[in-house]
């Protein structure tokens, strides 16, 4: 073989390849040992850093971070390939990283990862939008859609309607002896609720799961639906879940790992295929709604859901009072922009609701006194009638349960930020472009902020002083992120969770099959409940 006219044998090629490999390894470690302001960390492997640690702890990456926190303290670093990420639980750093100021140096969640660009999510919507001006504009419309009184009241009605459908499935498809995975019911339920609230479309995710539990069920009992109808409708929700899981995969693993390592390559293709299905189906829904709006007389009121608001933004059919004086954003939103916002609304709403609901089922099964007290509040406040929006503000113990479960089981264990300017973090001025992860379980379970932090104690939130949390206990509970990037749908999420607790515990006994079985979950960017085996039957008392 000749290279630049030089004849090379197999041995020569081997030596050349080995030499280049050694040079690359030395270059990697030169960068590692000469990095500015080093922090403690396990020794990284060349090229991959701590990625294999991520794989070893793939089912619970937060446990690995707890171990690092115990060993290195409240601030340490990890390497993903050749990129350094600083993990912190220092409360004194939170005022900067989670600052609500529009002049914050931490308005970007992630750098410019090629994986997220390939996935079609980076720079769109809210979560991963690095264009701050565009992000602010999108956030205005998102907040407007999910915070209006009509929308919040409708979310209560929609939650009840979808839960009532699921109750009918339970009645015809389950009996007292059937063991079923509640995490699947919870995820299907949240999917059906959020999709209907955001797009006005049904996904039949709970109906689809029922057919896996009771495959011999006559589909005519499912509101006259055919199995093929249910299958087609559920394709959207399944594609969405695969796509959301892909965020973790495409964030942490370099392109060469995803494309060339067996196993990773198949996952890579599966996620991109799900992306195409999701994008195409959502684009069809958006186009269908556009036609519906165009065919509606101008003197006829349009419905006030999120999709309609986004489509009519900056048009003569605008149903929002939100205005923006920036000339660049006085144009109507494109289908691609709308799709990005819709995906974020679905992602933020479904995973949070489903997983917190599942974790609550687990904890209340282990603490019957808490469950009885919760039921007493529900019976005294609502009894046997339907829930109203006004009822929810009176469910203070219900809210305390949600907060304590979220403290114990943070659904978003990691909050990412990237600095736009040099800043003093961890006692050292760190350069612009430094990437940080706030490790929320390391704060929620910290004895410096909570008495007996490992103990499940709802009473700590019964007389919870919000003003106290804003001062000396600030950031000790991070349910919805923080700063300007705080979850804009947090009010809607709390309404849904309260409504679901009322509906579940007012009429049903949901019991764990094995009280001694550990709580199963997976942790990546989100903590997801798994294999929560229960029996479901009508309430006995």
UniProtKB/TrEMBL annotation:
Chain residues that bind heme: 487
PROSITE patterns xref list: CYTOCHROME_P450
Keywords: Heme, Iron, Membrane, Metal-binding, Monooxygenase, Oxidoreductase, Transmembrane, Transmembrane helix
InterPro entries noted in UniProt: Cyt_P450 (IPR001128), Cyt_P450_CS (IPR017972), Cyt_P450_E_grp-I (IPR002401), Cyt_P450_sf (IPR036396)
Pfam families tied to this protein: p450 (PF00067)
UniProt keyword Transcription regulation, yes or no: no
GO molecular function: heme binding; iron ion binding; monooxygenase activity; oxidoreductase activity, acting on paired donors, with incorporation or reduction of molecular oxygen
Classification via Gene3D superfamilies: Cytochrome P450
Cofactor: heme
Residue intervals passing through the bilayer: 6-26
Source species, domain of life: Eukaryota
Family note: Belongs to the cytochrome P450 family.
Record PANTHER family: THROMBOXANE-A SYNTHASE
Name assigned to this protein: 18339_t:CDS:1
Species lineage: Eukaryota, Fungi, Fungi incertae sedis, Mucoromycota, Glomeromycotina
């Amino acid at each position: 073989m000749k290279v630049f006219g030089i004849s090379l044998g197999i041995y020569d090629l081997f030596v050349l390849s080995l030499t280049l490999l050694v040079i690359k390894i030395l270059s990697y470690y030169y960068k590692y040992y000469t990095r500015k302001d080093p922090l403690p960390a396990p020794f990284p492997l060349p090229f991959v850093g701590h990625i294999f640690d991520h794989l070893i702890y793939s089912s619970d990456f937060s446990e690995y971070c707890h171990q690092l926190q115990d060993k290195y303290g409240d601030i340490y670093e990890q390497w993903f390939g050749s990129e350094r990420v600083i993990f912190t639980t220092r409360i004194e750093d939170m005022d900067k990283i989670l600052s609500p100021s529009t002049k914050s140096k931490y308005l970007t969640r992630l750098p410019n990862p090629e994986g997220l660009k390939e996935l079609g999510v980076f720079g769109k919507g809210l979560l991963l939008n690095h264009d701050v001006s565009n992000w602010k504009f999108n956030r205005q419309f998102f907040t407007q859609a999910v915070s209006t009184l009509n929308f919040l009241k409708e979310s209560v009605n929609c939650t009840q309607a979808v839960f009532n459908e699921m109750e009918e499935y339970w009645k015809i498809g389950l009996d007292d002896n059937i063991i079923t995975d509640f995490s699947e019911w919870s995820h299907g339920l949240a999917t059906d609720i959020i999709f209907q609230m955001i797009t006005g479309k049904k996904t039949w995710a709970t109906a689809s799961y029922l057919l896996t539990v009771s495959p011999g069920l006559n589909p005519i009992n499912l509101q006259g639906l055919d199995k093929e109808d249910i299958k087609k409708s559920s394709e959207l929700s399944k594609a969405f879940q695969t796509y959301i899981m892909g965020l973790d995969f495409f964030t942490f693993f370099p392109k060469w790992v995803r494309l060339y390592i067996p196993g990773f390559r198949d996952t890579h293709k599966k996620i991109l295929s799900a992306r195409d299905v999701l994008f195409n189906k959502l684009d069809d829904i958006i186009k269908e709604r556009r036609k519906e709006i165009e065919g509606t007389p101008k003197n006829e009121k349009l419905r006030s859901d999120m999709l309609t608001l986004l489509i009519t933004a900056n048009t003569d059919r605008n149903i929002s009072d939100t205005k923006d004086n920036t000339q660049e954003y006085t144009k109507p939103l494109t289908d691609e922009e709308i799709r990005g916002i819709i995906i974020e609304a679905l992602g933020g709403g479904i995973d949070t609701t489903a997983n917190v609901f599942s974790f609550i089922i687990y904890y209340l099964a282990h603490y019957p006194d808490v469950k009885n007290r919760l039921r007493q509040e529900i019976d005294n406040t609502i009894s046997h009638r339907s829930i109203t929006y006004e009822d929810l503000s009176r469910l203070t113990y219900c809210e305390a349960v949600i907060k304590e479960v979220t403290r114990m089981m943070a659904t978003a264990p990691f909050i990412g930020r990237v600095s736009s300017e040099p800043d003093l973090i961890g006692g050292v001025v760190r350069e612009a472009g430094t990437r940080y992860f706030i490790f929320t379980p390391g704060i929620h379970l910290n004895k410096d902020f909570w008495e007996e932090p490992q103990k499940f104690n709802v009473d700590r939130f019964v007389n919870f002083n919000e003003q106290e949390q804003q001062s000396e206990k600030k950031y000790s509970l991070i349910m919805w992120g923080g700063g300007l990037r705080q979850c804009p749908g947090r009010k809607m999420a709390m309404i849904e969770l309260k409504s679901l607790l009322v509906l579940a515990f007012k009429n049903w006994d949901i019991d764990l099959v094995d009280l001694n079985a550990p709580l199963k979950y997976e942790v990546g960017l989100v903590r997801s409940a798994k294999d929560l085996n229960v029996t479901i039957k009508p309430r006995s008392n």
